[in-house]
Amino acid sequence: MDTPKKRLDQFLTRLERMEDIESLDLIGLADRTRELLSDLGQHDFSVFSLRQHDDPRPGLFLGTMTENWSAHYINEGYHQFDPVMTAVSTADEPYTWDEIPRRNLVPRARQLFVDVGSIGYVNGIVVPMLIRGVGPVAFTTFARQPEVTPAIKVLVEALARKVARRVARLQHQQIDELPPLTPREAEILRWVALGLSAAQVGLVTGISARTVEYHLSNVQKKLNSNNQTNSVVIALAAGMLTF
Fold it and tell me: Taking the model in full, what pTM does it have?
């Protein structure tokens, strides 16, 4: 019987196998990503850079939506009205389609939800991120059921960052590697990932809570993250944490 726990176990097992991500080409990467997302109740995805028309940086794109849908999306001009993508410019954390307020949407934006719903997609998760050498990037999933738990959001974000960085490398972007964490920073972040507060980490490591906060602040600066949870997700995606 297929259960949420079984799908989660499958995801974690497959995510471990994704350590060979650097050997995947774009087709293999798309297939593997779609397979992983299916374990989380997500079915298709797209990842692309958000660029102004005069941006000299090369673009980035990979996705599994059908050519018919992609053509329909462009032909209808939905890229100009898509409220899911519009929110990327102001968001600093992952969000779902159903978190977008619908009351004040323009008619074209409302029609977009109708059209995508007509092919079976009722919700999705959007992960905004910034990749050096590329700029703002959005990773969005397409799901056939409305339920999205906070845990699913965190797992999708970890996967999204892995995939986006690999797409950027494959498409010949110049990405600076994240600066390494010091042994102390990595140790503290591991404890945070396990759910400990700054005070608890201080007791475990023998330093003050204030010093723990200092190290966590340095980690956020290094990883260009906006909070401790985001730091953990980025570090996991970059292979900086071991347990």
Answer: 0.69
Domain range for 215 is 183-237
**pLDDT at 4 (0 to 100):** 61
Q: Which of 129, 146, 170 is the last residue of a domain?
A: 170
94: left (phi over 0), alpha (psi -120 to 50) or beta: beta
Looking at residue 111, what is its pLDDT?
93
Q: Are residues 19 and 117 in the same domain?
A: yes
The two three-digit tokens of residue 108, written as one number? 């074209």
Q: Are residues 82 and 152 in the same domain?
A: yes
Tokens of 105: 């949407």
User: What is the rounded CA–CA span in Å between residue 95 and residue 153?
Assistant: 8
SS3 of the chain:
CCCHHHHHHHHHHHHHHHHHHHHCCHHHHHHHHHHHHHCCCCCEEEEEECCCCCCCCCCCEEECCCHHHHHHHHHCCHHHCCHHHHHHHCCCCCEEHHHCCCCCCCHHHHHHHHHHHHCCCCECEEEEEEECCCEEEEEEEEECCCCCCHHHHHHHHHHHHHHHHHHHHHCCCCCCCCCCCCHHHHHHHHHHHCCCCHHHHHHHHCCCHHHHHHHHHHHHHHHCCCCHHHHHHHHHHCCCCCC
